[in-house]
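so i finally got all the pieces together for this one. its two components total, 557 residues if u count the protein bits. some of the lines might not be protein, just check the labels. i wanna see the whole assembly predicted at once instead of chain by chain like last time, that was a mess tbh
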Amino acid sequence: MTIELPPHARERLKGLRNAAHPKGVFTSDFSVNEFLLVRKAGFEPIGLCVGSCVYHVGIQYTAWSRNQELQVLSDAMYKARELAISRMRAEAAAMGADGIVGVKLTIKRLEWDEKLLEFIAIGTGVVHGVGLKGFRAHDGGPFTSDLSGQDFWSLLHAGYRPVELVMGSCVYHVAHRGILSSLGTVGRNVELENFTTAMYEAREIAIDRMQAEAAAAKAEGVVGVDIHEGNHAWQSHVIEFFAIGTAVLPLEKEIAPEKIPDPIMVLSVND
Amino acid sequence: MGIQEDILFAIRTDGCPKSTQQRLFGVRSGALPWIATLTPAELMITRSHGFRPISAVSATCWMHYGWSWTLGHEQGWNTALTRLREEARAAGANAVLDVKMRTIALHVEESMDFTLTGTAVYVEGLPSGNEPIIATVPALEFVKLLEADVVPTGIAVGAHYEWLLDWRGTADPRWSYVNTEAVQLSHLWERVRRKAHENLRIHARGQGNGVLAHVNFSQMFEGEAGEQKGYLGRHIVIATTVDARRGAQFPHAVSIVVDMHAGKTPLTGTTRHHQSYAMNEEEGGI
């Protein structure tokens, strides 16, 4: 015997399935606040999109006493992330998503081989609830963004829309100091200029690359930029500078700038 | 001139490298996208409070402490601060927000890097001709302060160390059966801390009329000072300097709100803006 659902519940289920979720059920990794704010922004989640790339990182030998970018490693770290992201984006496009919010990028080491890294990109594909156009990236595909659902709402209400997750990577070998230069620093506080130089050069390369990606996406700016360093079990003087952020463009007509309310400042009494 | 020579020349003159200058010029002229560490919520206030993001900026000084670990910190942060101001100037900015103090985990003995990163912005209505403001607070807190008629201006560092020579081995009353104060050590600590605070005051004076201190780092060691037994005490205090009008009132009413933010609420204030002192628990040279 089957249980008869009340007619309005049946209608409702049909509506849900047909209107915003053509594939039946939506999946997302949203929290409650995130879900509510994405919907408040006029979007509906349709499905988790994922892209993965297992990458063998090549070998590059370096001169012990030289500051230099390790091009082979930079390329590997960039290419593998790029592959994972583009696969995630292809899945979103197949779902008919206008964009992906809350993209998380992770790198996993595979335990049997230290040169094998898995790069994973995962996020929630969303569509505009009433089908407003104008949210796609410049190539007509879904936008990508590592901003949370809350940040997504805030961004739209700041008069901007996300375009593309942009990034720049630079894996750099910092020169070891020679014996002579070590002796010269006994008893004095001195700056280790070649170390400082290395930091400057590596950081600038990473930022420059991220900015070039944003320019190629025809963005006005990049928000939520994070520049951090990481060492993925390379030798001690090898370090990756990685810059990542969401490239944005002003909204054209969805929210008129004069309608954007001034935010209210809050002082918390808890601390 | 190669890129590394260019950077070397820049750091020797505490300036901004040409390659970075060119990129920043591209942003100023609108040829390149702006870059901001600001969150979207902070982007909202760019319109309401009249400021324009320009670029993420950063400065580094990698110090080797051949002479003094403690004073190296004062020197390192100050140098990085000077360079950050120069880079902000090259960006056409009058303020750097969201300034974070960072140290890269590339352990090289007896040395440490002092890195400052932040977002250079142009704030309308700030008096021109002054040095770029360095604000070690996020953009939201920056405008909170501005609305309260307080201007965060920079970073002040106060550091001091002192050796206590223990001729008679009495500083630590370790064999005493009764409760007793280790008077010499108390005095050492007090002197070191007070002197560090005094240095903080001196260093802050050039930048504002007050400080909000956010790092208080101190260590004491027992060791050998030459032939003698001795104790080393050192204290570093780092603060955001502010320019505040005395008695100015915060113009807003208090209301109760529900926060929709996931995780730790940003309403409770500044996220940790430094990670340079958690990892320096080991002994350094002095």
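The CA atoms of residues 165 and 227 of chain B lie 10 Å apart.
The first strand of chain B starts at residue 34 and ends at 35.
anyway lmk what u think
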